[in-house]
Amino acid sequence: MTNGIIFDMDGLLVDSEKVYYQANRMAAHTMGFELTADDQHAILGTTDQYMRQYFETKLGSTDKMTQFIALSYAKVEEVVQNDGVAIKPGLVELLDYCDDQGIDRVIASSNFRNMVEDFMQSTGLRTRFDRIVTGDEVTHSKPNPEIFLKALDQLALPAARALVLEDSPNGVLAASRANIPVIMIPDMVAPTAIMNQQTLATVANLAEVIPFLKK
Q: Nearest CA to 64 among 76, 75, 55, 53?
């Protein structure tokens, strides 16, 4: 029986991974290098610190990395202002079901708290989540399980009574390492055979999680 759900945010609650990818590609183009799909997949679900380390290695200098990150964040704001950001399909139905059944919930996002708060406010979701754990509150990024263990503490539940919802390989692996059941709702990365072994299921949208909660 599931009494609490731990939600990732980027690519799971909101359609933000595409925003980041677009912003990162725009920043890379401005600086004259190519940002590949492999680059984007490598940083999915990780912290800002990990992303900085990744691009410092890729670009070969701290200065270039700092310039790229600053430009990327500026481009994120530009994309969101121009196009907005959508909530993911099935989310409202799932949250309504959780309300009806008294299922607790918490967000565990690798993003900065201020960005999580901004996305939650802009999409109208902030009132639906009382608790949030963010990447700037942990030492280790996903796939380390630290953020999910902190979220589990907030739920005050044993791992077997909780459920993680994730869209990224790093998030699935982090949940698996925390020994918390996990369902994957893929966003930009399709599940592999290994990920299928680490999850209860892979579903197309958040509303399809509801049948698993009824079991």
A: 55
Between CA 56 and CA 116 the distance in angstroms is 24
Sheet with 201-202, edge to edge strand ranges: 132-134, 104-109, 4-7, 162-166, 182-184, 201-202
Digit-coded pLDDT (tens) for 80-134 = 888 878 999 999 999 999 999 999 999 999 998 988 998 898 899 999 999 999 9
Smallest CA-to-CA distance from 158 within 2, 21, 10, 49 is with 2
> What is the reported pTM?
0.87
CA–CA–CA angle 12, 146, 20 (5° rounding) = 35
C-alpha distance across the termini of the chain, in Å? 7
Hunting for tokens 């999680």 — which residue is that? Answer: 209
Q: Which of 201, 193, 209 is nearest to 175 (CA)?
A: 201
Separation between Cα atoms, residue 81 and residue 205, nearest integer Å: 26
Token pair belonging to 117: 């708060």
